[in-house]
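Single Protein Entry

Contents — chain, fold
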Amino acid sequence: MSVIDKIKNAKGPLFTFELLPPLKGHSIERIYTAIERLLEFNPAYINFTSHRNETTYYERPDGLLEKKIVRIRPGTIALAAAVKYKYDIAVVPHILCGGFSKEETENALIEMNFLGIHNVLALRGDPHKGSRRFIAEKDGHTHTHELVTQIINMNNGRYLEESLENSTPTNFCVGVAGYPEKHFEAPNKQIDIANLKIKVDAGASYIVTQMFFDNRKFCRFRDECRKIGITVPIIAGIKPISALSDIKLIPQAFHIDLPNDLVTAVQKCKTDSEAREIGI
């Protein structure tokens, strides 16, 4: 069942989770262990993040640096398929613009379609580590709405190779990201929400927000979306504080504010365990 159908048919609150693929060389068993602890909450679906390639530099014996492209968390689609069929839970792999060409994206979507995975969260992705701006891959997408358009084209039976005859339409339900406190690259809130509407108008069926810690900011964001004509469901993304360092790292990494009372309470904690209880 698609994410949007699950939302429309819901009789009460739905809980979903987002998990990271294991680091390269690690086992899937840790993912299974995590999921089995969450099954009691009857998750409507599970998101699996995707990560673009990273550039690292190794020092050669001659002292020069050698550039190498690595992907530290591969296997998003395979992991999603394994979980879907082991636990009979809907899965939502993340598909990125960053690090992929249009053809690579199409091939990934074809694999998902063959595997019976028909939900996807379309994201631009972060810039390369150390870079201040996003640069698309050669023949890749620069903006998320372009990625959404490619997916919707496949839903309409239009693939990159226009000469294909009798092509089979896919049936993807597409989600996109929204930012209650504004995407850090957007010049202002109005333009950020206008950009979000472009993604929705391209064919997105729902929005998942960046994490927030003040409900008023979410409600204000929701109202601003409705005012501009965005009518699709908006799913609140949340993440509890889980360590003392989170009050410094989360605002830095995700460009969001933490309420002062939360920061003050965590600062009084002496251990990560205490901070986690405050976060919950």
